[in-house]
């Protein structure tokens, strides 16, 4: 599991870079990677990118920290995950430095990236949506590397201790919410709900709606000392006193609207049973209730029939699944290759613009009568020119025929290709999940049906032997 946090750098970029690149913290600078810049010239590279944007906010860079659970990941793998996170988040547009620190009890990555991108010259928009995007990418990478992940839910702001308790199935708040949900589904009125909750072994206070009453409804199981408030912060927005009553009334209204007066007949509601999973009728509650088992058998039959719909056989489903899997694999491989091309082209475009913008200073320096004085006045521009020239030569770019607009056009075309491949891959993955669910339902249903027939044959044989 890894957790993330991010903050803006408004002033001293060079100090922040020096801190995260400290050799004592990064295994003698082995665990440092960069894109579109180098640790030595990052402040200059960022300054050039910022000079190209017209947006006026004071953010110069962003500092993203990615922390891992102790002993869950090696230093090398943690650094790899950090680079992958930077690549996925910044999409080859922003210059960045990734360093992995090994001087604490837990391994963690520092990612500093420029606030302005090198392609469209736009500022990075730091907000809740962008932070949730970072968290989503972080969780995806943890899953890919077989690390633990905090499962997403509608409950925001929960403490880590509560999440861990949920994972171990020991959170009493989760049980409380499940009991409240069950009582709401059963109750016809708010008063019925209160009776049901008390019958489940909870003490309640603040349940009335008077002006002088308590602000929140609260619940306490008899084996605990403290109450849990029905507030947004404690249990969630769906468990306030007002919302509980609204949910009960909405359920009652929905039921009344379903009642159609005779002789008019309501049209049957067609459910998509193919998206459901088979009900496990081996549980004790089904074995003890023949009526409940009969209902579950009918539901399973509908699910199996829906799974057959559009396929006709397991062989056809398996063929469809193989075709979609091949499509997803091909799209995924092409997507990875395109992302690598984008990353390289993004660097080339960045250095091409940097070279072109500062080349005039290089020419004037060469013609200057007092080169030392000119160097002192334009040291930054000359440093950026020479750095860009060296990088472009390393990429094999012909500087005499350098065409920045052609590079930008190629980049935009490649980016459009990436978006198309992403949509194809996601669509194929979604269809694969649906086909797998249908296939699993069919195999489980046929297997259970076969077992039921064998059981019936054995009972019939025993009865015949008894006679």
Characterization of this structure:
The protein is of the alpha+beta class and 467 residues long. Helices cover 57% and strands 9% of the residues. Strand 7 (218-221) and strand 8 form a beta hairpin. Helix 3 packs across helix 4 (128-144) and helix 11 (314-367) packs antiparallel against helix 14. The longest helix is centred in the C-terminal third of the chain and has 63 residues, at 404-466. The radius of gyration is 31 Å and the shape is elongated. Mean pLDDT is 81; it is low at 152-157.
Write the layout of secondary structure elements.
Elements: E1 2-9, H1 13-20, E2 32-35, H2 42-51, E3 61-68, H3 75-90, E4 96-101, E5 108-114, H4 128-144, H5 160-167, H6 172-186, H7 190-199, E6 202-205, E7 218-221, E8 228-229, H8 241-258, H9 284-287, H10 290-308, H11 314-367, H12 371-377, H13 379-394, H14 404-466
Helix pairs in contact: 3-4, 6-7, 10-14, 11-13, 11-14
